[in-house]
Fold this protein.
Amino acid sequence: MLVAMRILPALLVASCLSTVALAVFASTQSPRPGPLVVAGGGGTTDDIAASVLRLGGGAEARMVLVPWASENPDAGAESLEFWRGKGASKAEVVSEDALEAARQLEGAAIIWMGGGDQKVLVDKLRAKGLDAVVARRHKQGAVVGGTSAGAAAQSKAMILGGDSADLEVAKNGGTALGEGLHLLEDAIVDQHFLKRRRFARLLSAVLDNPSLVGIGVDERTAAIVHAGAIEVVGEGQVLVVDAREAKVERCEPGARHAATGMRLDLLRAGSRLRIDGRKE
């Protein structure tokens, strides 16, 4: 009986210590990266807007709008009017002041980047030191999304704007690439995809970089990338080009690409596809 009485307090202490250890372990775990919303431009539909707000925590979520890809001086005001109309009561336009902008972004549950020229957007964020803030907030769980240029900018290898790409032939070096925001480390995004017939443009980029998955998002459509998978919302389609296990023949710069064993997946609203190699 005496032995049992001595053992009981020891067990209680051990149990308490175990509970504390589990709580400390859980509190020190890094949060999961937040969803990325990759919208193809041509208009943000009601279901895309609703998905963005739902993922960010609802209409009361703090939302920061970054219109810097556009040359239109009213782009910020127009974006604010749009999102307020969709119910985003705490949406605000990012400040031109770097310190104030950093403060806004640090407190944002949703960061949304508008259309225009993705290189202009990334260059301005980088010049103000805000690219690192956006990346950090994504890693901390914030929703980061964008339409058109704001979608393309999310890639590590970013397709540059303009008409320099060959839209007729998939060839070595046929698509000019720059450095994006590194939010999508293992993918290349193209936007306005089917509407502007950009298949050869994305195919060239992927075959030049076969370790990266190509995501071509059509207008009025969004690919939501989260936890290694893509889910589609909107009216159009998303084409996924995967050459990671393909045999890509070597060729000289400017020569036509050749590859066998590629995988192409065509998705529509409600479709889901893993792109991290794991099965559902």
User: Anything to note?
Assistant: The chain has eight helices and 16 strands. The longest helix spans residues 2-28.
